[in-house]
Amino acid sequence: MKTTLSVIKADIGSIAGHIKPSEALIESVRECVSVKVGSLITDFYVGSTGDDVAIMFSHRGGCNCEELHQLAWEAFLCGTEKAKEQGLYGAGQDLLSDAFSGNVRGLGPAVAEMEFEERKAEPFLLFAADKTDPGAYNLPLYLSFADPMHCSGLILSPKINKGFKFVILDVEHTEEDREIELNTPEDTYEIAALLRDNERFVVSAIYSRATGERAVSASTTRLHNIAGTYTGKDDPVMLVRCQGDFPATGEILSPYSIGHFVAGFMRGSHTGPLMPVKMGSTISFFDGPPVVSAAGFCVQEGKLTEPVDCFDHPYWDYIREKVSHKAFSMREQGFSGPAMLHYSELEYGGIVDILKKLDDRFSC
Questions:
Q1: CB 80 within 8 A of CB 95
Q2: What does the alpha-carbon distance between residue 77 and residue 73 come to, in Å, rounded to a whole number?
Q3: What is the DSSP annotation of 112-137?
């Protein structure tokens, strides 16, 4: 029987602004979900990264299971009520509808799901990012699945050197999903040409070409495309299976040592380096920097092990210091040039009103 992993993540309230959800909020979400263990779900995990709460479910219902999505929605509503009781900031911020309509996709929360037959050993990673958007995973995925500089298995392992199929979405095409499938190694340059544009093209899935098995499921929600107004960054989640027919855990983690520049920071309107942080980390400097956590698990017959914090190691302390220097250098530039996102990414912010107001004051 197949196992389904579903991770659903949302900002439903935070202490002191966009810092961290309260323990009471997280516990209310956990309590709501726990009553379904043994019936709807086999196991679950609840955690936070920055000001977002992520719920990961192990179940047998397949992807897009309506009952499962409804459970997540109800859990977030419980958390929202607790946030309101405590006077937390942004209570229910990512819940963009008043009613559940069969699936949380399109209602605000970020979703990543995959269904598979369990291997004898089934290790995987849960990535959760805050103060950035789905394109933040583009470069790490490219380097982990297409570049032997980070994934030595591409030249050392016959299990993975046949390459991978990338499924890439054009997230500016909002009427319906518009996607393309490209293969490594022959389409490597074409994949790079698309993934350089983090705000338009994002990886939604990656498959092994040797086995056809799915390796990656990443959320692709762009909140401003749903709400029609600025609602914060999209704070994506991602599931990555590793080892065996897929890159090793270390090859998946390696690209996060770069601290590559992504969209995010304050009001989701700036550029900053992506900092790999420990699970449960807060947000701080300039409502940032953009952060990502990595929780490692194994699953057997649907039961999850306890998580291991993949970025809780002395090596990553050095990387965090390096990323801090990069963040400070960019923030010294304030609003000027590449320190702030391009106008097209600010179209739902107050700056568009300023420019409209000034337009009539220009003369030829």
A1: yes
A2: 6
A3: EEEEEPPPSS-EEEEEEEESS-GGGG
What local confidence, expressed as pLDDT, does residue 227 receive? 43
Taking the CA atoms of 249, 311, 135 and 340 in sequence, report the sign of the dihedral they define. negative
What is the per-residue pLDDT for 349? 64
Query: 217-272: per-residue pLDDT in tens?
Result: 999 875 445 444 444 457 899 999 999 999 999 999 999 999 999 999 998 899 99
| Angstrom distance (rounded) from CA 264 to CA 296 | 25
Give whole-number Cα distances, 183 to 104, 168, 190, in Å.
30, 11, 9
The angle formed by the CA atoms of residues 28, 31 and 35, to the nearest 5 degrees, is: 150
The torsion defined by the Cα of 142, 197, 11 and 65, in degrees rounded to 10, comes to -60
Domain ranges of the chain: 3-356
Q: Which residues carry out catalysis?
A: 11, 230, 233
Q: What is the pLDDT of residues 114-154, one digit of tens each?
A: 999 999 999 999 999 999 999 999 999 999 999 999 999 99
188: helix, strand or coil: helix
Distances in Å between the Cα of 102 and the Cα atoms of 15, 71, 306 are 31, 11, 30
Long-range Cβ pairs for the range 90-93 (8 Å, 24+): 90/11, 90/12, 90/13, 90/14, 90/18, 90/51, 90/232, 91/12, 91/13, 92/12, 92/13, 93/10, 93/11, 93/12, 93/13, 93/231, 93/232
H or E element that contains 145: helix 138-146
